[in-house]
Design goal:
heterodimer, A: two-stranded antiparallel sheet, 11 strands, globular, B: alpha+beta, 7-stranded mixed β-sheet, 22% strand
Chain lengths: 223, 762
């Protein structure tokens, strides 16, 4: 199985995401923002970082990268896509996921070890978790506050599309403590914390991130 | 006529070499540019004519204290007397290069360097600190290395001074904003508050990079006909200091004259530049490379040319500009960030340009290497600079500044902490422990460090608040490096020689505490005015202290930085020689963390405690006192302790190890309890106060499983290190129970520790 990791200028965690893919048992493929196709990968990760410097609005310019012209329809057609941090912002800007990510309510960048509750263990990226499972992952963002209008939030809750919620304190003021959401098909998942930093003992706060990368393998094999 | 149209400067008023040969007596603003009369005369002597305004600008900035080290050079040369070898072999590059390079084994090398960005950070805290990171990262890139981590030792004035409220948040946001966007984990540093830094905060930045031996690049322009390429950001009017004098005094004042003198950083541009450089190195298309930092193109062209074997021609009007009105002198001086200069063989130029294109990095051929001996710079076809490059880059003035032991020192040293009132009851001891724990220099710094990304790149094994940061270099073997930066300016104020050795010893000890073998040093020497003989004496003493310390440890100084003029009026900062020690660890999986994470571990103190309270954190917190003489420096004892810590880590002896320094055993124990919430029961000698608060050097507190106690005893015996059982860890103990001291619950410790910074900074 091949999992593509897109590098935009300014991507930082692409290297780590490729390592996490390898640890999960798949073959990582480096995709370039200017690529005209997806090189036949079976799933795609949009990694963390500051694509194009995030100078306009986080993720706003990356949305227009050539590789996104192929990625958006593929995701709409069921290709598993995981957006982490800046990747989550790109997914929201691309309208593959609802809502938006704005500046943290305390107006500072925050890097901390964060507990999450798994709210949906049936997506392509979460099937190896248990519903309600508590996991510890690295969190680091400056524009990580998830916001959406009330109707959208109610819809997300009603359709069980809130994939993760913060536990033990809300680190950035996200509405309803939402840390990650999924699309209605469950193939596109975006989250603010960084599971790719939690796949190897001794590096990062836990090993809890590994299940994201084994989940997608599992769902691809069963597809 | 429309006055609002910005026009490029005309060539009419251009000061050319031809003109300089004719009007020898033209009045030049050399004094306003910071040159002394004899220095100006020296320039005329070198050129056998008056300098052009462009040449004057180049010399003035390259001969400044910051670039030429004119006051420190005579002392820094003594570092060269140290053997240029680490415990792992010869240095691959040493002092004089952008950064020293040391072999860490398995074909890997590491380069690291620490620099100051103190003055810009006081004027404009966010950009000053941000561009400090940017500059040190480019130094590391220029050696052919991939930057892998940064650290920031910071010093501010009194925590409750209004200026600290302005400076600290700006500095922290600048470091975080730039470093986070660059994708470099920030793995440690220091935060110190002292009124002596009120008008002169110290913002030091360290970067470490890794490279394979064969990828080492040096800054030299060799090979006649090779192209000189400027790449990266466009050049703007930022970071021009003295040259605004030239723009306003020598020339018509039509254009903008007062330029901001603090550079503005663009971390996105630097991130792209890093990846672009690494691709250029991998393709083998770079012959020589130099970053553009202080003194901009003046520095890069003169240093590249003087390190080569020929001359260089540069067409200055080819430099891509953000501001078309910049005068040639300003273009030469601009310290615009995120720029590099490479020397490229003509046959490889297309390949070079293809790579810069891929990263959307602008690259421009400015000129080429010649078989001449001069650096010749033209503008619009006219020669405006024609100089021997070495005279600009290396042959600046060297001063033997007078030095004298300050008169106040005798009285200061006589005023020992021995006379201070000590806590006598168990209740008073508890109160003093909590007061020290919550004091600005000891308290929880996560308000600051949580604004830095410590996880990016996935190789961070230890980071603040561990004693040293540890990052993995090679994923396949686990080979990694440990780094610590330290200085206790209070000790250095009492005795700069001993203070510098304490800084070195503490940094060395911190690195060894993780289990890494210390192999090399970089230093950032922050002092007051070199024109004050007392300051110059402090500086010379500190240099001697470092040299004697390095000789005892068998490790070289691979590079560093001097920051003078950190003083307001007659009052200088405490001498603050910040020492960065680099260590190597064969497998980071075996590194020792600073805090215990389990119950039932035996706790031992390694090393001897003396009644040493002068300059201590306790004397500061309890009595606002600074006086006496620093604790004894015992370099043999430090080496012995390090051997126990390193051998023990290799043998899997330690569950944790924490160095004892500021705040002594008291702080080490309290921090260790707080880290994972596992309590401890402690029993000390009859003099609990001295045991807890003395700051004797060459000590650590370690935790071992009961089964490893004999192995530890045997290691201590082998290396001659004193060892004392002081207690056990226990999850049934709430916080810290010390015999003779009222109990300290976890909740009490935690609220004292965490409240301080949020109470001030929100």
């Amino acid at each position: 199985m091949k999992i593509g990791v897109v590098t935009f200028p300014g991507s930082l965690d692409d290297h780590d995401a490729r390592r996490a893919v390898r640890f999960g048992g798949a073959e990582p493929v480096a995709l370039w923002h200017a690529d005209a196709d997806l090189h036949g990968v079976d799933a795609v990760i949009l990694p963390g970082g500051f694509s194009y410097g995030d100078y306009l609005r986080a993720g706003a310019i990356a949305r227009f990268a050539p590789v996104m012209d192929k990625l958006v329809p593929a995701a709409q057609g069921g290709l598993p896509v995981l957006g982490i941090c800046n990747g989550f912002q790109v997914l929201c800007e691309s309208h593959l996921l609802p809502g938006a990510l704005i500046r943290n309510d305390h107006r500072k960048f925050v890097c901390t070890d964060q507990w999450l509750r798994v709210e949906n263990a049936e997506t392509a990226w979460t099937s190896e978790f248990e519903h309600g499972q508590k996991i510890l992952v690295a969190l680091k963002n400056g524009e990580g506050s998830y916001v959406a209008d009330e109707a959208t939030l109610d819809q997300l809750e009603g359709e069980r599309r809130v994939a993760f919620r913060y536990l033990g304190g809300n680190p950035n003021g996200s509405y309803r403590g939402i840390a990650g959401v999924t699309n209605d098909r469950g193939n596109v998942v975006g989250l603010m914390p960084h599971p790719e930093h939690c796949v190897e003992p001794g590096f990062g706060p836990s090993n809890d991130g590994l299940a994201f990368f084994t989940s997608v393998l599992h769902s691809l094999v069963n597809a | 006529m429309n006055d609002n149209i910005i026009q490029a400067p005309s060539t009419e008023s251009l000061d050319t070499v031809a003109r300089a040969g004719q009007d020898a007596d033209a009045v030049q603003p050399w004094a306003a540019l910071g040159l002394k009369e004899d220095e100006y005369a020296q320039i005329r002597e070198i050129l056998r004519r008056r300098p052009t305004s462009a040449e004057l600008a180049m010399y003035s900035v390259m001969w400044s204290e910051h670039c030429s080290y004119k006051s420190s050079k005579v002392h820094l040369r003594r570092f060269g007397d140290l053997p240029q070898e680490t415990p792992l072999g010869k240095q691959l590059a040493g002092i004089g290069e952008n950064a020293g390079v040391v072999d860490i084994g398995q074909g890997w090398a590491v380069t690291f360097k620490i620099e100051s960005h103190n003055h810009p950070s006081y004027i404009e805290p966010h950009q000053g600190a941000a561009t400090g990171i940017g500059g040190i990262v480019r130094d590391i890139m220029a050696m052919g290395a991939r930057p892998i981590a940064v650290m920031d030792p910071l010093r501010f004035g009194a925590i409750d001074h209004p200026d600290t409220l302005r400076v600290l948040p700006g500095v922290v946001s600048g470091i975080g904003g730039y470093g986070n966007c660059l994708g470099l984990p920030n793995i440690g540093g220091e935060v110190v508050f002292d009124p002596c830094y009120q008008g002169n905060p110290l913002v030091n930045a360290l970067c470490v990079g890794a490279l394979r031996h064969e990828d080492l690049h040096l800054a030299a322009a060799t090979g006649v006909g090779n192209k000189v390429v400027l790449f990266g950001a466009k050049t703007g009017g930022d970071g021009i200091g003295g040259v605004s004098v030239l723009a306003s005094e020598t020339f018509d004042s039509a254009g903008p004259t007062k330029r901001p003198s603090v550079q503005v950083g663009d971390p996105f541009a630097e991130k792209v530049l890093i990846e672009c450089c690494l691709d250029l190195y991998a393709a083998g298309v770079v012959d020589g490379i130099q970053d553009l930092g202080g003194a901009g193109l003046s520095c890069a062209t003169s240093e590249l040319a003087s390190a080569g074997d020929g001359g260089m021609t540069i067409e200055l009007d080819r430099v891509p500009l953000r501001d078309a009105t910049l005068r040639p002198e300003e273009i030469l001086m601009s310290e615009s960030q995120e720029r590099m200069m490479a020397v490229v063989e003509p046959a490889r130029l297309d390949e070079f340009m293809a790579i810069t294109d891929r990263w959307d990095v602008e690259a421009t051929v400015l000129g080429e290497v010649t078989d001449g001996t001069h650096l010749i710079i033209t503008w619009r076809g006219e020669v405006i600079v024609d100089v021997p490059p070495r005279s600009v880059a290396h042959d600046g003035p060297v001063y033997e500044r007078p030095l004298a032991r300050p008169e106040y020192l005798d009285a200061l040293q006589a005023d020992s902490a021995a006379s201070l009132l000590r806590p006598s009851t168990s209740g008073e001891l508890r109160e003093h422990l909590l007061a020290v724990l919550g004091s600005p220099n000891i308290c929880d710094k996560s308000w600051i460090t949580d604004q830095y990304d410590r996880y990016v790149r996935g190789n961070t094994s230890l980071a603040m608040p561990d004693d040293a940061g540890v990052v993995r270099v090679d994923e396949s073997t686990g080979l990694g490096v440990a780094l610590s930066t330290d200085c206790n300016g209070r000790f250095a104020q009492l005795d700069p020689y001993a203070g510098a050795q304490h800084a070195l010893a503490e940094s060395y000890r911190n690195v060894a505490t993780t289990g890494a073998l210390p192999i090399a040093v970089s230093d950032c020497l922050n002092f007051g005015s070199p024109e004050d003989p007392g300051v110059m004496w402090q500086f010379s003493q500190a240099v001697d202290g470092i040299i004697d310390g390095c000789r005892a440890f068998g490790i070289p100084v691979t590079g560093g930085n001097v920051s003078f003029y950190n003083q307001t009026g007659e009052t200088a900062i405490h001498p603050t020689p910040v020492l960065a020690v680099l260590g190597v660890i064969d497998d980071v999986a075996r590194r020792t963390p600073s805090a215990w994470a389990a119950s039932g571990l035996y706790l031992f103190q390694l090393g001897a405690t003396r009644e040493e309270l002068d300059g201590s954190e306790w004397s500061l917190v309890a009595h606002r006192h600074l006086g006496g003489v620093p604790p004894v420096v015992d370099l043999d004892a430090e080496r012995a302790l390090a051997s126990v810590l390193i051998d023990g880590a290799r043998g899997g002896v330690f569950a944790s190890a924490h160095d004892l320094s500021q705040g002594g055993l008291a702080v080490a124990l309290m921090e260790s309890v707080l880290r994972h919430g596992i309590g401890a029961q402690i029993s000390l000698s009859d003099d609990v106060f001295v045991d807890l608060f003395a700051e004797s050097a060459a000590r650590a507190v370690v935790a071992v499983t009961p089964g490893q106690a004999d192995a530890l005893a045997s290691l201590c015996e082998t290396h001659g290190v004193e060892m004392a059982a002081i207690g056990v860890t226990s999850d049934e103990v709430d916080g810290l129970i010390i015999e003779g001291v009222d109990d300290l619950s976890l909740a009490d410790l935690s609220s004292a520790y965490t409240a301080t910074l949020p109470a001030i900074f929100g």
